[in-house]
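A further point concerns the way the authors explain their paired sequence and structure data. Since the whole study asks how a given chain folds, the encoding of that fold should be made plain. A single example would do more here than another paragraph of explanation. An entry of this sort, consisting of the sequence and the corresponding backbone structure tokens, reads as follows:

_____
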Amino acid sequence: MHPLDKRQQEIIEEFRAKYTSVPSRINSFKDTHRELIDEGKKSIQLPVSLREHSEEIIATYYICFIDELISFQIEKFVEDLETTTKALGLQNGMETMSLLTLTTENLRAASKIPSDIVKNLVDIRGGDISDEVTKAILVKENIEPYFQEMVLNLRSFSSNVDLRWPVAQIRYAFDHFLRSHGVAKPEKNISQIYREICTSYPLSEGEDIYWDLLYFQLLSPIYNDLVSIASPMIEEKLSSLEIERKAAPILLKAQQAAEKTRASLEMLNSKLETIMYHVFRRGLELSPEYETEIENAMDRVLRRITLEKHGVQDIRNPEEMMDIALERIKRLMKEYEPLILPLLEPEDIKPYVEDKKGFLEKNSDLLDRRLRMKLKRYTSPKITPQNLAKGFTEYLKQSLKAKERHSIF
């Protein structure tokens, strides 16, 4: 199908503005713009897995909704539809409108990420924060929320979602954005990007791979390109900050202190998660050096969190300090599943393996109590950030032993 000319684009824009619901758009467009649809249908050759789908609906939907989100032709879009069903593990495919609507929703979500990231880059880099910490912040604040939304959309059709597929959709949105800003990126459809990710990263399921996919596979390869786009705005902000510094030094000092605290906490979190990644994902030994680094990082994380919340690094209420530590450990559990093992009794293993999500939801309060008891046991009588960090390191060692013993991960 040839690119749409200016008049055709005007027709479609008028059509989009006139009709708000998907069915009314589809039906009205089919009735009034038969020539455009017929041209689109000529370019479609449905693969076997999509034979039950209507070429007419796909062509209409592509022209009405998808063409504004992608820059490749309808033939490649059909390939992406087929890959979507494969990424969901659906042997019998999906109903046509459901497949098209799902694709549109996820592409729209993905398309919001690049501009949001550039805006945040300006704020972060304007505060003179390191690249490692900046990337960690961008993943947590700008990518992960949209990624989780996209995964939920996919899981409404299948529980077996290949997480590399929504990553490929986001990566396409990044490449599309970069090309629009003059960065030389080869034109690939989402299926091509997906195949490249599958080649470099073999894992496809589990919340514990979110960080690997979003930080290492998605953001890191294009980070420098995004910084280049944001650089003029970053320079402008730095210039503005310099003016503010001269005009209002006290206000600027408070702003810089807040940015420094935030950056320091993100840097410590990133340091901690990097070590966890090496130990749990790459299978490296928890060496004495790693133990010391984990203790120091966790100690400083807890102090930074209490400083943000209370303005002091040590608080007098030991239970509140314990709560802060428990909340941080539970966050790590979501990404590093073996951390749950020391909390499971022998009789819990089978039901946990059979239905992990259901087991965790059903036993949430019980597991929280067990975690509190374990951490207290591994922490010396006085609850301080340093002692809690030592207790966490001991808990981590028990998790690794349990992982070897049960061999369920």
Observations:
- The chain has a mean pLDDT of 81.
